[in-house]
Amino acid sequence: MRERGHLEKSIEDFTNLEQELRDSVELIEMGEAEDDAEIIAEAGETLVRLQKQAATQELETLLSGEADANDCFLEVNAGAGGTESQDWAQMLYRMYSRWAEAHGYKVELMDESPGEEAGIKSASIRVQGHNAYGWLKTESGVHRLVRISPYDSSARRHTSFASVWVYPEIDDEIDIEVDPSDLRVDTYRSQGAGGQHVNTTDSAIRITHIPSGIVVACQSDRSQHRNRAEAMRMLRARLYEAELRRREEAAQAEQDSKTDIGWGHQIRSYVLHPYQMVKDLRTEVETSNSQAVLDGDLDPFMAASLAQRVAGAADAKAAEES
After folding, report:
1. Which of 167-171, 232-236, 279-283 shows the lowest per-residue confidence on average (mean pLDDT)?
2. Chain-centre distance of CA 144, in angstroms?
3. Per CATH, domain 180-246 is 3.60.20.10
4. How far apart are CA 207 and CA 215, in angstroms?
């Protein structure tokens, strides 16, 4: 029923787009017949908006991966560099939160480790909404910031790194078996804002999957049992994403060698000094409006990465069939 609902909405959106296009064309014809520049200008603005909507709908047809429609988890981790990198991680956390909220997605903070002076060492959020994973999946990788550090009394230029990791939330139809003997479970006190109970009891949970080295943590609830359940959901999702990535890399190893977006590989640079520029190193998409990007305007980068990824998959499939 959920899939049917999404399909019905897609058809409805397309039908509405088609109707608005016909109406705008008729308005332009009427404006030209009556020599009414105001009507023509208004219809022209509508056509520009419809063009953007059509491009978005076209891209969404590419989100046909196994888990693209699912909610997802997004993790941000500060790199080496102390306060500067931790502040950069905080900026990325804000950037993705604002992007998600602007697109109508619900954002839930799952875990956060504050920085010693400013920013965050790490944070995990759940992004809930249709195609959340499909849109965000190409954001995994290392993000590089170049700026004059506000924490440097000498006002020197600093380069900072932070890592982003995105993985889909799995539903009940996907069964991921986890051997309890492969897990190490640690409890600790929640950090950051919270009530008296949250800050004085070991309600936060950290689970380490020993064979893979994957670590997840949750402190979103004051109940240790509920945090453990959420952490297990996150772990299963990470294991599932790892398998999806393994299969994808096996299917298109040659393409991946050209556009590797895996963990530990720099994917985007954000330069705030001596000039303003954000550039994606995989697709060459760039903009001088760095503030808009940091405020969540990520659609051009996501669209280009998604199109490139789908094209790579198609090339790999064609090569395999030949």
Report:
1. 167-171
2. 16
3. no
4. 6
Cα–Cα distance for residue pair 216/238, rounded to 1 Å: 9
User: How many alpha carbons lie under 13 Å from residue 316 in its C-beta half-sphere?
Assistant: 18
Eight-state DSSP code of residue 296: T
- Output phi, psi for 251, to 5 deg: -80, -30
pLDDT value at 178 more than 90: no
Q: Which two tokens stand for residue 289?
A: 């409006």
HSE toward the beta carbon, residue 95, CA cutoff 13 A? 22
Q: What amino acid is encoded at 303 in this protein?
A: A
Q: What are phi and psi of 107, to 5 degrees?
A: -115, 125
**Looking at domain 72-169+252-321, which CATH architecture does it have?**
2-Layer Sandwich (3.30)
82-116 per-position pLDDT tens digit: 899 999 999 999 999 999 999 999 999 999 999 98
